[in-house]
Design a protein that fits this description.
The structure holds 3 protein chains of 3 kinds. Chain B contains 11 helices and no strands. By secondary structure, chain B is mainly α. Classes of the chains: A alpha/beta, B mainly alpha, C mainly alpha.
């Protein structure tokens, strides 16, 4: 099976002609989980956005679900960071999740029972059924992240991209998100997530890509989350302790 | 004449209530204020040329709307500053145009603060037409506007052309601002658009309810302002604007006292 | 090109603009980095009722006091409202702006010379600025420049890194209030001579235009001051020519603003060119 959920060859991404990350070579198969690991400002978000068409692919070849990235949009899901969302916006959790159905609904068709059921199921999977009617802004950071995840999965994507989904997220929400991600990949959904939490990367990912301005390494957690590659990736942010251990400062 | 003023005020109240919800929820008050200053030279030019004011105002308003939309893709500081530049520039241009006509001062005032008592039949017809268009647009495009307004990045990733929808909304705001000029003028149009909707937001976080309240508050402010103006012989446009502000102030105070359910 | 300014009132007008250039070049940098364009615009509208009340209560002398009270009141109210939340800050600003302006319009509409007062308020009387007003502006310029010299570092720190500033012990709320108060002072000082339209332009355009050629605050301030001087000269010349040669009563305030905005538009391509040339690094 030569199908790849995501294939990037010699890719550099950025905005308006200016590259943010270069030299990306990786291949992700359906059902695999890829973690993009690197410090703040490394370009992980930009890379994810480029796959979604929100940033430019400046050089190299990229296929998403074996198609041009633009064509694959209807089967790609996105879970952005919640920080940019206005907490005062008058929208309920259920309405946010329903946004994930808009593509199927179109702009005018009223929501039917099947749509409402899909939304309810997604909410149930992330454990937010009892918060469905509340205003989105009243939720905690972790709950908001879960709501956005529900929004993404209600459309049954074949590739799911999450931008720092565990940032500032409480333990309960983190467990829920991890559980859902494992279920999704067991069902064949390919997953890409960015994180600077090495423990999460090690436990959750099948494939890790170290990124900081460029791709420094790609491989299994065992191959990549080791001293050598990490030191290269984190550069100044890595301190070597005398007893041979390494500390990453300011991830 | 008074009847026409009353009808216009009611129509304007509904119109500004409807669009006001979008302006408040998407934090477009500054932009709307810039628009009120931007439509000014167009309205003046149209008046000089002898063309319908709506046309002139919509043209310059649209130019500014598109300009700001294009500039907003840059960093926030540049967008805020650019809007400020357009505000002063637009106003100065309008004033310069006014200066080319002698004896225009009276009309200058009515552009800025409105003259609802001299509203004509064609103004009314225009308001009805615009109200129909705006109501239709907001109803039909509710979903994309909601998605793009709440989460532009997520919407774009899902294939929504946020740029296009934003432009549509901005142009709709331009249309409303220009339509409201005969009633309350360009500067005071801002208060009718923002205050009733801001008051409605204090009472509800559900868009349909918020919209209904905004319309109600808008119409009430219009009628109250008209009444005060007739009774105490003060400028009508300003009275309407103050009535809208009063509604907001009362709502704000009541809400701080009654902290029962978070909206 | 010089003779118009030999005429006393033109010379005075140019002097007033020069003083305002000194004030507004630096102040507009803060308006730019803190995105206070809306607040500045609001201040110009809210000063209106103060001006009216002051004039009605105390004649020409009362004008300044009335404007000052209104301006300071707005500065405080806006600072408080935007920290109390619930009302988004842009909606609050919009409402305060129009409410105060409406009060001014209502007050003014009870007098018969409604429209000329409105015009004077909006466009000022740059050509009738008296030596005494110039002196007052000069004093205010001195006060404001000293205040800027003292507060610049703190304000800039807060502007670029509010969390860091707070962590370093700076009281962000107070800093915001003081900056708003400073803005109110500038507005009040300038409104009398040049009207609200020009004041907003003087507070917003210089830094916005200067940003096209540099990103360093100090250089922005200098460039801004220079721009206002050039625009002031050109604008005055323009309105002089327009009224003498073509009989068009173009107010000098409008002409100066148009020159400023023109400078901004002409510099836009420079910014694009710079962004393209300096890929990465500090632009």
């Amino acid at each position: 099976m030569a199908t790849a959920a995501l294939r990037l060859t010699g890719v550099s991404v950025g905005y308006q002609g200016r590259p943010v990350v270069t030299g990306v070579d990786l291949e992700l198969r359906p059902g695999q989980r890829l973690a993009l690991v690197g410090p703040n400002g490394a370009g992980k978000s930009t890379l994810i956005k480029a796959v979604l068409g929100l940033a430019d692919i400046l050089t190299g070849a990229a296929t998403v679900l074996d198609q041009e990235p633009a064509r694959a949009r209807s089967h790609t899901g996105y879970v952005p960071q919640t920080g940019n969302l206005d907490p005062d916006f008058p929208v309920s959790v259920r309405q946010v999740v329903m946004m994930g159905r808009y593509r199927q609904l179109g702009w005018w068709r009223p929501a039917r029972a099947t749509d409402r059921q899909a939304v309810a199921t997604a909410l149930d999977r992330v454990g937010l059924t009892d918060r469905a009617r509340d205003r989105f802004g009243l939720l905690s950071g972790g709950q908001r992240q879960r709501a956005l995840l529900a929004r993404a999965i209600v459309a049954r994507p074949r590739l799911l991209l999450l931008d720092e989904p565990f940032n500032g997220v409480d333990a309960v929400s983190q467990d829920a998100i991890v559980r859902v991600l494992r279920e999704l990949s067991a069902d064949g959904t390919a997953i890409v997530l960015s994180t600077h939490d090495l423990t999460v990367a090690r436990d959750l990912a099948d494939l890790v890509c170290l990124v900081n301005g460029r791709q420094w390494a790609v491989g299994t957690p065992g191959e990549t989350l080791t001293a050598g590659p990490l030191r290269q990736t984190y550069a100044h942010a890595a301190l070597d302790l005398a007893d041979g251990r390494m500390v990453l400062v300011e991830p | 004449m008074i009847l026409r003023a009353v009808v216009e005020v009611v129509l304007v109240g509904v119109l500004t209530g409807l669009i006001g919800v979008q302006v408040v929820v998407r934090r477009l008050s500054f932009f709307t204020m810039a628009l009120t200053h931007a439509t000014f030279p167009g309205v003046v030019a149209a008046s000089i040329i002898g063309v319908n004011l709506l046309v002139g105002g919509v043209l310059t308003g649209a130019v500014v709307a598109l300009g700001v939309a294009a500039l907003t893709r840059r960093r926030g500081q540049d967008a805020a500053a650019a809007t400020g530049v357009l505000v002063s520039g637009g106003f100065a241009l309008g004033a310069a145009l006014v200066a080319t006509q002698s004896g225009f001062s009276r009309d200058l005032s009515s552009f800025l603060v409105g003259s609802i008592l001299t509203v004509s039949r064609s103004d009314l017809a225009a308001t009805v037409g615009v109200l129909a268009v705006v109501a239709l647009v907001l109803a039909v495009c509710a979903r994309p506007l909601l998605f793009a307004g709440f989460d532009p990045a997520g919407a774009r990733a899902a294939g929504v052309r946020t740029g296009g929808w934003d432009v549509l909304l901005l142009l709709t705001i331009v249309l409303v601002v220009v339509t409201v000029v005969p009633a309350v003028g360009t500067i005071l149009a801002l208060s009718l658009i923002v205050a009733p909707a801001a008051a409605a937001r204090l009472w509800s976080a559900r868009l349909p309810v918020m919209t209904g309240l905004a319309v109600l508050f808008g119409v009430a402010s219009g009628l109250a302002g008209l009444y005060v103006s007739a009774h105490w012989n003060v400028a009508a446009g300003a009275s309407i604007s103050l009535a809208a502000t009063a509604v907001l102030t009362v709502s704000w105070t009541l809400r701080r006292l009654v902290r029962a359910v978070p909206a | 090109m010089i003779e118009p300014f030999a005429v006393p009132f033109m010379g005075r007008a140019l002097t007033e603009i020069a003083l305002l250039a000194l004030i507004c070049g630096p102040v507009s940098v803060f308006v730019f980095v803190r995105r206070l364009s809306f607040v500045s615009d609001a201040l110009t509208h809210t000063v209106f009722p103060g001006v009216v009340i002051g004039f009605v209560a105390g004649g020409i002398e009362g004008l300044f006091a009335g404007a000052l009270v209104a301006g300071l009141l707005t500065a405080v109210v806006l600072t408080v409202l935007t920290r109390a939340a619930r009302l988004t800050d842009d909606a609050a600003t919009a409402v305060v702006l129009t409410a105060m302006f409406s009060i001014g319009v209502v007050l003014v509409s009870r007098r018969t010379s409604y429209t000329s007062d409105l015009t004077a308020f909006l466009f000022g009387r740059l050509l009738t600025v008296t030596p005494r007003q110039i002196a007052e502006t000069a004093v205010l310029a001195a006060v404001i420049l000293v205040a800027l010299a003292i507060g610049a570092r703190a304000w800039l720190f807060r502007a670029f890194d509010p969390a860091g500033a707070a962590a370093a012990g700076l009281r962000v709320g107070w800093l915001d209030l003081w900056l708003n108060v400073l803005l109110a002072l500038v507005v009040v000082a300038a409104v009398r001579a040049v009207g609200t339209i020009l004041v907003v332009a003087l507070l917003v355009v210089p830094a916005a235009a200067a940003r096209m050629i540099t990103a360093r605050p100090a250089v922005m301030a200098l460039a801004g001051t220079g721009l206002v001087l050039v625009a002031g000269y050109a604008g005055l010349l323009l309105s002089w020519t327009a009224s003498l040669r073509y009989g068009v009563a173009l107010t000098s305030a409008s002409a100066v603003v148009l020159m400023l905005v023109l400078a901004y538009l002409l510099l836009l391509p420079v910014r694009r060119w710079r962004d393209r040339s300096f890929a990465g690094g500090l632009t």
